[in-house]
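Hi again,

Forgot to attach this to my earlier email, sorry! This is the prediction with magnesium ion bound. I've pasted everything inline since the attachment limit keeps bouncing my files.
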Amino acid sequence: MAKSSKKSKVKKPLKKTEFYTERIKSGIPGLDNLISGGFLRGQNIIITGPAGAGKTIFSCQFIWEGLKNGEKCMYITFEEIPEEIKKDALSFGWDLEKYEKSGKLILTHKDPFQTTDITTRLQNEIIQSDITRVVIDSISLLGLYFKDTHEIRRELYKLICALKSTNVTAVMTAETREGIDFAPRFGVEEYVADASIILFFSGIGESGFRSIQVRKMRNTKHSTNTHPFEITKNGIIIHKSEI
Ligand SMILES: Nc1ncnc2c1ncn2[C@@H]1O[C@H](COP(=O)(O)OP(=O)(O)OP(=O)(O)O)[C@@H](O)[C@H]1O
Ligand SMILES: [Mg+2]
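Structure tokens for the complex follow:
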């Protein structure tokens, strides 16, 4: 019974002309004016960076922006447990639990080694719950499940196609490959995504320097410069490029 009532809520897929037209705010101060006003609705964006670069904070900030605007959001974590994510977010003033309790946010931890067909389940959950923003943190862990680069590329492509069919705007995080400070772990992630943003972090004690670069964003005129950013008590703030 419940299923049939949910079915009626399923959104029609965007028409071709509706794709890549509406810009939505990223929630990161300083980013939207580098990317022609914001992310394109329905787009998927990979955020790559080393440990501690700010990928999870970026993701929470993107979700928080959606929640503030009344959107239904989903945060899938393969790493930290939901309690940790909520605690981290709260330290920036983002009370995710409030939205979780009111049903506006689905925040779940999934075990990448026990998740056989995440793609279909995720697609169904997004459609049934009318989700418009989703975070997957991180797809690198999901990739560990697969044997080789071909399989990873195929599965990521499948995941991205499934996300696209739901019209959701998706932020996916990816870890940097060791020794190469911009390449995602498996070397395929940024090719299959619509957009790729790199967070650099040359961390030397407290004076670590953080910067961000939009490497690729389909259908978007964007800055290609590297811009310094800070993690403040209100989250990530991007500053103007010094170049
Ligand atoms: N309140 C804060 N003020 C300033 N910097 C902070 C604050 N909270 C966290 N940070 C910085 O952010 C880093 C963690 O950011 P985040 O968890 O988003 O990184 P990540 O890229 O997701 O890392 P990982 O790959 O390990 O998951 C911390 O190591 C710290 O340097
Ligand atoms: Mg993280």
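The CA atoms of residues 112 and 142 lie 5 Å apart. The pocket of adenosine-5'-triphosphate (ligand 1) is lined by residues 49, 51-57, 79, 91, 175, 231, 233 (CB under 6 Å).

That should be everything now.

G.
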